[in-house]
Amino acid sequence: MAHSKALLVLENFIGGTFVPCSSYIDSYNPSTGDVYCRVPDSGKEEVEAAVKAAKDAFPIWSSKSPLERSQILNKLADLIEHDLEAFAQAESKDQGKTITFARTVDIPRAVYNFRFFASSILHHVTECTEMPTMGCVHYTSRAPVGVAGLISPWNLPLYLLTWKIAPAIACGNTVVAKPSEMTSVTAWMMCKLLEKAGVPAGVVNIVFGTGTKAGEALVCHPDVPLISFTGSTLTAQRIAEKSAPHCKRLSLELGGKNPAIIFNDADLSQCIPTTVRSSFANQGEICLCTSRIFVQREIYNEFLKRFVAEAKKWKTGNPSDPTMDVGALISKEHLQKVRNYVKKAQAEGARVLCGEGVDPLALPPGNQKGYFMLPTVIAEVKDESCCMQEEIFGPVTCVVAFDTEEEVIRRANGVKYGLAATVWSSNVGRVHRVAHRLQSGLVWTNCWLVRDLNLPFGGMKASGIGREGAKDSYEFFTEVKTITIKH
Ligand code: NAD
């Protein structure tokens, strides 16, 4: 394996101090294939120290007023925003995503996560009911739970980590977070800003390392009563198993196999570019990406022709080039896995209409060992094929035809996942009808990825347990108590 000259070496952040680790793992730059960073390979000992620091900080942090915490979160948002370009460059290098995506989506959203929860924590009200005949008033009160364990994936590293840290600390919890071992750099950079923002030592602790060592140590720690996890369904099953003996509170945001349903009255001029974006944005490495496109038969051929032409316009290459639309996949192994799905589909008789590997000679010399793949469109795939059933999590999407509304609802629901769906039609009645019957935590009609963070986010079936959002995260990160007063 190639080692670049000056390796970046990360340290854990525990109790407000950077702490070196006794062993490290290599982290690759996906667009060059070089090791460029060393990430602590933390285990039980480091998690123990971080949980202790978080426990020690809890009494002070939880007793601050929501307004005091809100001001600190806003300050942290300002500091990240001030360094937006440095964060975006780091995220792009670490994850392989394009610099444009990091600049316009990942880091602005990380900033907004802190601002959003800084605001929403000021506006919650608890419940109150009266029982006049009994002379009683009931009300609820909410309090932070304690030390929250936060585990996040590699696809939207700082974006998803801050989507957990912000509500957890806004509610008064202290946290021990473990980012993905493949994308740890921006979390480490954020730690450098915490003191300046006024976050007291021990409120945010970050332990870097693998899921099986650092992640499981956190999940199994008796002093961590809640775990918020975003990642794969397989890992979630393991986390649920490991945390069961402690009866931990779990929030699980997992994978998807998201359908787009395109009726013959859809506005294709809007639908086609949006569906290309929903299939290939961030190399298809977003849990909400479309990977099964159902097109009504009458417009199937026209759709396919225009969709493939649009997909071919997306340029794949050096992620730091702002004219690129698609960067590198996260790892060599992941690229192999994604390409194997395409091979399996071909072996089953499906047609690959565009995409697959990038000719290394077409890439700049420094990127020829990077993990690149073109936006890939597959047609005539059977519903039972693994390409239509399993999450591929890469720049691959399948297009198939359907005839009736009833049929497409059944087929769209015919997978184990239920995260997100899109419906394209100009018939308002149909749009509502179909949205109601889809087994999906999120349904976008005539658009994709338009989010109001106030509202619940999350999946049904194997896509998760629980929801995130202003009210949902508040409820997850607080313990409720019902108090009855007889007067
Ligand atoms: P992953 O499950 O492999 O890893 C996620 C995190 O869990 C990482 O930090 C990893 O180190 C840790 N982990 C792994 N094994 C663990 C264990 N035994 N105990 C504790 N922690 C463990 O997922 P990934 O490959 O990093 O991310 C891709 C997956 O995440 C996809 O399935 C994608 O759909 C999903 N995802 C879901 C959402 C959502 O909001 N629903 C958002 C983004 C990604």
Question: What are the main properties of this structure?
Answer:
globular, 15 helices, 487 residues, alpha/beta, seven-stranded mixed β-sheet, binds nicotinamide-adenine-dinucleotide, six-stranded mixed β-sheet, Aldehyde Dehydrogenase, Chain A, domain 1
Q: Report the end-to-end length measured between terminal Cα atoms.
A: 74 Å
Residues in helix, %: 25-40%
Question: Can you tell me the overall shape?
Answer: globular
The CATH topology label of the largest domain is Aldehyde Dehydrogenase, Chain A, domain 1
Bound molecules: nicotinamide-adenine-dinucleotide
Protein architecture, described:
With about 475 residues, the protein is of the alpha/beta class. The protein folds into 2 domains: about 10-255 and about 465-485, Aldehyde Dehydrogenase, Chain A, domain 1; about 260-460, 3-Layer(aba) Sandwich (Aldehyde Dehydrogenase, Chain A, domain 2). Helix content is about 40%, strand content about 25%. The radius of gyration is 23 Å and the shape is globular. Nicotinamide-adenine-dinucleotide binds near residues 153, 239 and 419. Belongs to the aldehyde dehydrogenase family. One of its GO terms (molecular function) is aminomuconate-semialdehyde dehydrogenase activity. Its EC number is 1.2.1.32. Keywords: Cytoplasm, NAD, Oxidoreductase.
